[in-house]
Amino acid sequence: MNGAVAESLRGLLGERFATSPSIIGLHSRDESRFAPREPDAVAFAHSTEEVAAILRICSEHGVPVVPFGAGSSLEGHVLPVQGGVSLDLTAMDAVLELNAEDLDCRVQAGVLRIALEKRLGQDGLFFAVDPGADATLGGMAATAASGTRTTRYGTMRENVLGLEAVLADGTVMRTGSRARKSSAGYDLTRLLLGSEGTLAVITELTLRIHGIPEEIAAARCVFDGLDGAVATVTEAVQLGIPMARCELLDPAAIRAVNAHDDLAEPEAYTLFLEFHGGPRSVAEQVESVKEIAAGHGGGEFHWTSTTDERNKLWRARHNAYFAIVATRPGTRAQTTDVCVPVSRLAESITASAEDAAGLPFPAAMVGHVADGNYHWICPVDTDSESEQAALAAFVDRMVTRAQAAGGTCTGEHGVGIGKRDALLAQAGPEAVATMRALKQALDPRGILNPGKVLPDA
Ligand SMILES: Cc1cc2nc3c(=O)[nH]c(=O)nc-3n(C[C@H](O)[C@H](O)[C@H](O)COP(=O)(O)OP(=O)(O)OC[C@H]3O[C@@H](n4cnc5c(N)ncnc54)[C@H](O)[C@@H]3O)c2cc1C
Q1: What is the pLDDT of residue 234?
Q2: Site to substitute for ligand 1 among 33, 77, 143, most atoms within 8 A of C-beta
Q3: Looking at ligand 1, which residue's alpha carbon is closest to its atom 36?
């Protein structure tokens, strides 16, 4: 970065324009398998006006800008592969407006999802999208994130009503409205959802929120094999039972949690379920799924609606990620996801489980299965080139199989660096050329998070 740009940004932000090694280090990595890459500097923005001013300066000089939320993404999204400025939005963390009557709220992009959950909980409300990490709402929008409640409440694509965003040249625009539906022109909100900081910097979000249900029940059921578990989920989905959560752990994941938490759960495919509604409707949903599970060889169906017992029942699911990481101390967990039509889920997971058995490191599967979405979590020695190569090849094969089954290379983590070629294979050259044209129109100098999403030309 040339001295004039650094001077202008320092003049704008003072000490919030940072070049200290510790701050640079924190912004040079995410949770992915990719090697760290350092930005030249980190800019901490406090307002939309500052974001616009930073972009004006960087755009004038062609300096790359990489928006940075919590840095919890998993495909190299925030790595500044061409240097430049890492634009940290975490200080923009205000809940600006809460409309309980209309079930919507407006927040700044740096609000963390757990902080939002706490704030909304005070009014008996919740925001439904719950990725496993404590991500920022801006990062969640930029990755089109989802989580365990997607099967009932949708992903970020269904839960963001509108945005305020700053274009590469510093222009501030608003998209969407507070209305539940709209036929007014191109849908710029959904264009920016999943754009991974390559089209604009999101500064505010208008979100759909929900009332906390009167009754919540949790359930757990163990299966001898994968097929019975998946058949249970498929039938429940087909019958329209509105499960609020439906998660599957494989035997390796349960084994990891047993060792980590000193539990003695059967090491088998296990479904973790949650039901929301009034007491009668929840009881009906539980009974229906219990019957379906029994018809597909499910073991004992444990369920409860008290908070403590619910947490105990779901403990293995809640602790799975850290338990899997702990199976191999000194390694980093590398996580990847694909998503397929539910009818292809069993064959898709079975093929990847057979593949995973030949890997030179442990691997465990955790899935948001009612959506057809599953993840493999692999504790990998990041210093070992052969392990890294085996992981990359395993992911490639899984992606190819998912695409052949009519699915997608990523259901929720996004493309980042890691899945750019997979995007081309999936979307095809015509669609990717259209994406390039959109990028060119919104960011003609290519300063916004370069090297991400779109494959090299
Ligand atoms: C343990 C663990 C569990 C996870 N579980 C899930 C899960 O269940 N579901 C799921 O979807 N993901 C999951 N993730 C991945 C990750 O949490 C999500 O991708 C999350 O949405 C990223 O948000 P963030 O604030 O960390 O964004 P960052 O990692 O900081 O950024 C992600 C991308 O968004 C861009 N970006 C960030 N903020 C903005 C902004 N304001 N404007 C424009 N672009 C921006 C960045 O440039 C980058 O390209 C998990 C990750 C971990 C480590």
Answers
A1: 94
A2: 143
A3: 139
pLDDT at residue 390 tops 90: yes
Residue whose token pair is 């960011």: 443
Q: What's the pLDDT tens digit per position in 310-327?
A: 988 888 888 899 899 899
Measured CA to CA, the distance from residue 289 to residue 294 in angstroms comes to 8
Using CA atoms, how far apart are residues 140 and 412, in angstroms rounded to an integer?
10
Sign of the torsion angle spanned by Cα atoms 259, 261, 264, 268: negative
Ligand 1, pocket residues at CB < 6 Å: 30-31, 66-74, 77-78, 89, 109, 131-133, 135-136, 138-140, 142-143, 145-147, 196-197, 201-202, 321, 412-413, 449, 452
> What burial letters (b/e) apply to 67-96, b meaning 16+ CB within 10 Å?
bbbbbbbbbbbbbbebbbbbbbbbebbebe
Q: How many angstroms separate the CA atoms of 254 and 271, rounded?
A: 11
> β-pairing, 298-304 with 215-223?
antiparallel
Task: Calculate the average pLDDT of the chain.
Answer: 96
Q: At what angle do helices 420-442 and 385-404 cross, to 10 degrees?
A: 80
| pTM, rounded to two decimals | 0.96
Task: Tell the residue nearest (CA) to atom 29 of ligand 1.
Answer: 71
3-state SS assignment for residue 111: coil
Question: pLDDT tens for residues 193-216?
Answer: 999 999 999 999 999 999 999 999
The pLDDT confidence band at residue 417, using thresholds 50, 70 and 90, is: very high
2 pLDDT more than 90: no
DSSP string covering 307-321: HHHHHHHTHHHHHHH
CA-derived radius of gyration, the chain: 22
Asked if 169 and 52 touch (Cβ cutoff 8 Å), the reply is no
